[in-house]
Amino acid sequence: MKKEIRNKILKIRDQIPLDIRAQKDLHIRGTLISLPEFNVAKIVLFYASFRSEVATLSLIRESLAMGKKVVLPKVDRANHVLTLYEIKNMNELSPGYMGIPEPDLPDERCAVIEDIDLAIIPGAGFDLSGNRLGYGVGYYDGLLSQRTKNIQIIALAYDEQLVDSIPAEKHDVRVNLIVTDKRVIRIP
After folding, report:
1. Domains of the chain by range and CATH?
2. Across the chain, where does the E strand assignment appear?
3. Residue 92 carries which DSSP code?
4. Alpha carbon of 151 to those of 21, 25, 85, 173: distances in Å?
């Protein structure tokens, strides 16, 4: 069932025209950087967008310019985990897993989930209860399930990615906020 929902949502997201998606991205960016949760966060985990995801590269640049510490994941396929790295500039990213921009950095730049104040994560779809439908691999659920402190988790999505209900399993990590091009959804 998750696979069917995922495929349907991704097909809709992929069909949003590039110029409309660019307008939506600008609105989402403006909304995110105005959130108190974002403004107080000193260390932010971002995802590097690819394909038709909400664009994050300009948000990453802006966050670095604001003096925030920015952490990005790198896929470790052998161990089926995300390894986190603090980046200092965009030149430290190169195409990695599935062509996604990833940090290409030495181990001394590694970060851990406990370093993070705010996590901004991707997803295929979301419901109004904060349930997230990822891409079916479980990397973010695995990473976020390791946290021992309360980290705000924000999903960036186009309003078209919202559905009535996403089947959730015990290991699925919910988001606290969903920022779309039309609204901010705070999950109690």
Report:
1. 2-183 (3.40.50.10420)
2. 43-45, 69-76, 81-87, 93-95, 101-103, 110-111, 118-121, 125-127, 132-133, 152-156, 162-163, 177-179, 184-186
3. G
4. 28, 24, 17, 12
Q: Is 99 strand, coil or helix?
A: helix
Q: What pLDDT is recorded for position 75? A: 95
Which of 37, 82, 33 has its CA nearest to residue 56?
33
Residue appearing with tokens 């999950």: 187
Q: Which helix (H) or strand (E) holds 139?
A: helix 139-144
58-100 tens-digit pLDDT? 999 999 999 999 999 999 988 999 999 999 999 999 999 889 9
Q: Is the dihedral of CA 88, 33, 139, 97 positive or negative?
A: negative
